[in-house]
Amino acid sequence: MRSRDPDWFALRRALRAAVVVPVNFAIGSQLISSAPVATFAAFGSFALLMFAIFPGNLATRIGSYVVLALTGAVLITVGTLVAKPAWLAVLAMAVVAFAVLFAGVVSSMLNAGTQAALLAFILAVMLPGARGDLPARLGGWALAAVVSIPVAVLVWPPRDQDHVRTKAAALCRALAMMLHLDPPPPGSRDRLVVMREAARELRASFRTSASRVSAISTGARLGIRLVDELEWLATIVNNACADAPEGWSEPGQRLRTVAAQSLEACAESLDDPGDHAGRPAHAMLEERIATLEQARLGVTDEAVRRLRAGAVPVDGDIPLGEFDRPLYSAHELGYAVALCARTVSAIAHANSRSWWARLLGRRPGVDEIGAVAVAQRTASGHFDRHSVWLHNSVRGAVGLALAVLLARIFDARNAFWIGLGALSVLRSSAAATGATIVRAMAGTMLGFAIGGGAVVVIGTNHVVLWTLLPLVILTSALTPTVIPFIASQAAFTVFSIVLFNIIAPAGWRVGVFRIEDVALGCVASLVAGVLLWPRGASAALGTAFAEAYRASADYLHSAIAELTGRHAPAELAAIATAAGSRLDDALRHYLAEKGSKSVSLESIAALANGATRLRLAGVAIASLPNAIPDGFVVKDGDDRLERPITVLTHRADEVTSWYAALAAGFERDVALPPVRASQDSFLDVVLPAFDRCGDPDLAARAEQLLWSGQYLGDVNQLRAHLVEPAGQVAAARGASWWRG
What we know:
Shape: elongated
């Protein structure tokens, strides 16, 4: 357990459920002596504590749980009222399941409560009962909410991402120390060693927390991006610090100082999660970002000045004005630090949103319209036949409606067991766990066998059944992250059997496994599981990767084409931005899947961040000031820009073609071209073109080529880090359907 759950997050959640569920069940069954109260109190507690995990501050989490409790009460009411006639129950199950599943597209907060809300409706519509049982059912759900919500928000609240944020802050401080111009004080630890230790700790913390269900909020998804960006920045800082500080020019030294201050502000902002806008740490970070932009402009101006100085013809053998490599490194450093700082700022703004804005998915710093309008726009944007969220919502609605239909086709005695089958689908569907259908069904069958066999041996002895109840709850609550999926699935089924035998002892009839009922329940689970199976978010994520990399590569190529005097389609920027938005949605859906993943979260994060960096490189090149005018052509016989443009163009063709092949590989088997390191330094190609050229304006144009070559070099070096993650995605895509 320590290796699978080193910070005991899963164990703590399981312990909460193992204590609260039996307590609420005992209140309903022993003190109130009501089977509906006991049933809905037990399953409601399990749903609130295990199926719904809301991140954020105390007020945000309380508000989210209250909304979920009210939603569950409404769904229980509707489910009880529509349970008869049969056709109405089937239709209602399809409509409600679709509405609840599709609502998750609006925001991660709504999506976090999807399973718990569905469980409430499934119990109401599937379990035998009459409309007169509605008060008791609502009473059981209310009991679950009254006891479980305080426990959920106060006892071991989700702090997974706090660890990642704290480690990221430590790495920011270590990088800032490396950039400081002053020598380290006597007796202090080596700055490089401290930085590397901080990077290792951040990666280890991310590895153990990235797959938690609480890691689906906007701030948490941005945190995944930040981990990768900081590791990239660590490489840049290490390279930049290879030169002595005194070797840097005055603008370069100023940028180093401001970059260090910006990273320190990032650390302060990460340490202060900031539940309200305008916190001092957040305000300081915004100021540092603005100062960093000014320092970057200072480096750019210095570069132009030196290039122009070298371009002026002079008498004698006076060397051209130097454009030193520390200045070139300073520009790269400024770009990378600014990228990280903006991500930290976005995290701060995301965490400072109001509860209402989070609930309705309002994006920080982007959406100027009302929160309700944002939710409507998001939902309507997914009413498209290509939308994975629409596909999975339809599959879920059809699968669960089929379970209700089977329960109504056979007599009411079977409804309970088929209801358990529906619960198993909810817990083990492909879109919910990522486990294989064979393991899911095997776990369910094993659970029925173990539970039935246990009841045969112990009969209806309540002392033994009550003793077993917390143990099976604890086991079933330990998700596949900690114990094998089959064991978890089996324990959940045993939990249901023990629970209902305490309420209504079935004796030996359960002992002979109720063959017919078990078969019907498994048929419902199997058919619905297959309908829900087609890899859901995993397949959608592959498609989103393909679209994002293809669109971003096209945009980058077009930006360089415009810079070198060629025309390119103007709409490529919007296409790349839209593809990036779809990738973010697919990533959110993928992270919402519980259980084991066919591809590690580290690899998924690397690929997602790679697509973002590719697009941002295009944005940076397209926004370079003083770009070469449209139609600029090097004069005949004047090859001063010809070679730099040729090198830049050929390199852009090679790099963007590789990314296009990477995009194609997410959809079909396409071999990636080898990643070859460039033999030429673009800096060495550009600078000799201005030795006494007599054209300062040409030197200014060359500065644009220089920075574009640097941005292109960044995504060129990134390729080597994407090969292995892309290979993992390809291997997962080629796996047999029954293996996940």
